[in-house]
Amino acid sequence: MREVLSTLLAVWRTGGTAGLGTVVRTFRSAPRPPGAAMVVTPDGTVSGSVSGGCVEGAVYDVASEVLATGIPVLQRYGVSDDAAFEVGLTCGGILDVFVEPVSQSTFGQLDAIAADIDAHRPVAVATVIAHPDAAWVGRRLVVRRDPGDGPVDGALGSPRADAAVTDDARGLLAAGRSEVLTYGPDGQRRGEGMEVFVASHAPRPRMLVFGAIDFAAAVAQQGAFLGYRVTVCDARPVFATSARFPTADEVVVDWPHRYLAAQAAAGAIDARTVICVLTHDPKFDVPLLEVALRLPEHARAAYIGAMGSRRTHEDRLDRLREAGLTEAELAGLSSPIGLDLGGRTPEETAVSIAAEIVARRWGGGGRPLAETGGRIHHELGNGSRSRRVK
User: Fold this and answer.
1) Residue 290's closest CA among 316, 266, 254?
2) Which of 35, 70, 103, 131 could form a disulfide with 178 if both were Cys (CB 3.0 to 4.6 A apart)?
3) Is the C-alpha dihedral spanning 195, 131, 29, 61 positive or negative?
């Protein structure tokens, strides 16, 4: 919903009603993940995408019907490879799309959710997408990560269902996952009949780029393109300026190791954070990597890469060993940084770094798809199947 939120809010704030189609579940090679959304405004304008163009026309028709009837619909697209062209999903995947009317009367919490997202406050929206009692469908709970963050807003239909879904939604929000959960009609853990889509709106993951060099500008641009909240940090104020890094969300003048340690202590580093060390200068690199490679478990970054030639890499490893780092700790370092694409320019190098980050995130091997077999899209806990959270 994040990518269509401005369009949705514009209609909501004028008192109008928009049709919102959200991908809630995918199987096989569906092109968009759970949470991808498309909005149809009252004048027929479309914003967003649920399939990259494959079934948008069909979803548009359903959204128009929902706007007319006010009744939400759960629709499945894609049956098999043979029938995919008939339903419009040419990749042969399967996706479930929940289409609902959104207005101030049906979704009164939308403005508060938008404020949470804008302020980088984690918030989850749990919506009933299937239930034996049609009156439950479309009801929702807005859940913050911790009970102290504020009361749960909304109701599903019974205290038992509210309690079960609230507990599970907080677990998904902490993990940054969006998926469908299945319960009995009254929220029973071992039952079936009620399906709830939990959309987790966690803050954007962070990319920390250390070293205010030309390569850093290109890496920051790639990071922003991939959806990261990008910080560029360097101890030299003459280089670390917003004018040199217009795509970065923030530019910090500080010693890299000191800044990273402070961010970790403040709880601002997590398992989605990626760290790119581009200084290739021992006086910056070694103390910074000492901190990065020894972050505690709860603050351990998803990726730590360091730029430099192979000679620089070997010298850096020797210095880190002298500083007391173990081989197990050094194994967490990707150096030289990036995949072997043969690039030379800062922009080409940034693409190779981004490619390694994406491959690390999803378990890709970095080989040309033409040389591989099997599934194209990797499934690593992306919510492609219904499950319960314990």
Assistant:
1) 316
2) 35
3) negative
The residue among 59, 82, 107 that closes a domain is 107
Q: Half-sphere exposure (CA, 13 Å, Cβ side) for 335?
A: 28
Same-domain status, 272 and 352:
yes
Residue 58 tokens, joined: 């069909």
**Do 213 and 353 lie in a common domain?**
yes
**pLDDT digit string, tens, across residues 124-152:** 999 999 999 999 999 999 998 766 666 78
Same-domain check for residues 239 and 332: yes
Residue 74 near residue 20, CB atoms below 8 Å: no
What is the span of the domain harbouring residue 272? 206-367
The reply to whether 147 falls in a domain is yes
Long-range Cβ contact pairs of 234-239 (< 8 A, separation 24 or more):
234/210, 234/279, 235/284, 236/212, 239/212, 239/213
Beta-carbon contacts of 294 under 8 Å, excluding residues fewer than 6 positions away, are: 325, 329
Same domain, 212 and 352: yes
Distances (CA, A) of 118 to 23, 121, 125: 22, 8, 15
Query: Which of helix, strand or coil describes residue 301?
Result: coil
Helix (H), strand (E) at residue 144:
strand 140-144
Adjacent-strand bridge partners of 209: 232, 276
**pTM of whole model > 0.70?**
no
Q: Is residue 112 part of a domain?
A: no
Q: Helices 282-292 and 310-322 sit at what angle, rounded to 10 degrees?
A: 60
- 194 and 338, same structural domain? no
Neighbour tally for 142: CB within 10 Å: 24
Measure Cα distances from 40 to 8, 30, 385 in Å: 9, 21, 27
E strand or H helix that includes residue 172: helix 159-175
The CATH number covering residue 357 comes to 3.40.50.720
Residues 236 and 293 in one domain: yes
Tell me which DSSP letter residue 94 carries.
E
CA-CA distance, 67 to 41, in Å (whole number)?
Answer: 9
Closest to 21 in 3D by CA, of 65, 55, 69, 63: 63
Could you read off the pLDDT of 268-304 as tens digits, one per residue? 998 889 999 999 889 999 999 999 999 998 889 999 9
Cβ 357 vs Cβ 364: under 8 Å: no
